Amino acid sequence: MNLTTEQKKTVIASFLGWTLDAFDFFLLTFLLTDIAAEFQTDVPAVSKALFLTLATRFIGAFFFGMLADKYGRKPILMLNIVSYSVIGALAAFSPNLGIFLALRALFGIAMGGEWGLGSSLAMESIPPSARGMVSGILQCGYPAGYLLAAVVYGLLYGQKIGEFTFGWRAMFLLSFVPALIVLFIRSHVPESPAFVEGRAQTRPGLLETLRKHWRIALYAVVLMMFFNFFSHGTQDLYPTFLKKQHGFDPHTVSWITIVANIGAIVGGLAFGALSEKIGRINAITLACVIALPAIPLWAYTTTPFMLALGAFVMQVAVQGAWGVIPVHLNELSPGAVRATLPGFIYQAGNLAASYGGPYQAGIAEAPGGSYGYALALFAGVVAVCIIIVIRFSPERRGQVMTVLDHEAGAIPEKV
């Protein structure tokens, strides 16, 4: 993968932006039981914060994406990172569950913008031959953020510094850290060459593009709905499953989650690179097939070692499939709206899948249910659905990216 120094810095900035965005999101997954206890409610009620965060992300994808298509990827990415950092930290001061849920909804708006901005900036700045690997690297930011949250939770949660105990509120104050990335972006990351080249051109807007390509856009939203069920259905409640169903302490929950996210990073890198050789569709299909035999080990074994092994394999599969998505959606999108459309499609799929967390928690805590059953049900059904749906996707591997629709970067007319 031959990249210039500037291209490498662009990839690093996009990766770090998504990593720390995910860090802020996944902090909550370790703290559901503690927040429920303080606000005197149950886990399904607090898990609505997951739903609200996911449900509002499409607003941010649309809002920040439109700004980036007009004013540039770089300045709006900086604005977006500062926004999610500040809003994420404000959750530490929530006086009640209602305010906490409202702040997480606002955080979802800010979080929703980052993926589309970072991926478009990176994909427009690198040569086509490097896109598969970079796609895997970028998507690995998500499990890297989860891994970082697991490490911080394991090291800091419950620790005492004098009279101060590091509780859930202090964890959210760490959300201020991502704002530091803005200094790096401002000093070292150039604007997207494709945006600079096409800045003076007249380009169609998002609504016009959606009208012209509504079939593929609708298909992509359905695909991303299943993808978001796949990731969040295997990740968000897994720490709760380990704590409530198995009674593991924070240290054990932390290291099992760390192992899972090491698997996710391995999967994202491996399948992102593999997609350059066997194609985007085949790589996604293969990853989903691997998830199916991992389910019994991941959801129904009882020892920490076996659960960690199952979690490793499951996340190799889940994030292996996801590792292809940044490049796949960007290759399908017209350049004029590339900062808006991939992120909007991704987050619209997130909206469609956003109630998955509370629904899973309801299944798990219903009479006769369990967290293992709820996790296994989601993972198995969704893996099969993705295998079926992805076979209808267009393949645009190696597509030249410009900002002009009449050039080779336009969405194909038919699914």
TrEMBL record:
Coiled coil start-end: none
Predominant localisation class: membrane
Topology versus the membrane: Multi-pass membrane protein
Source organism, top-level taxon: Bacteria
Residue span, Major facilitator superfamily (MFS) profile domain: 10-397
Entry-linked Pfam families: MFS_1
Keyword Ribosomal protein: no
The protein's name: MFS transporter
CDD domains: MFS_SV2_like (cd17316)
The species this protein was found in: Mesorhizobium montanum
Record field: transmembrane: 12-33, 45-64, 76-93, 134-156, 168-185, 216-233, 253-274, 281-299, 305-327, 371-392
Signal sequence, renumbered to the chain: none
Keyword line: Membrane, Transmembrane, Transmembrane helix
UniProt cross-references to InterPro entries, sorted A to Z: MFS, MFS_dom, MFS_trans_sf, Sugar_transporter_CS
Entry's localization field: Membrane
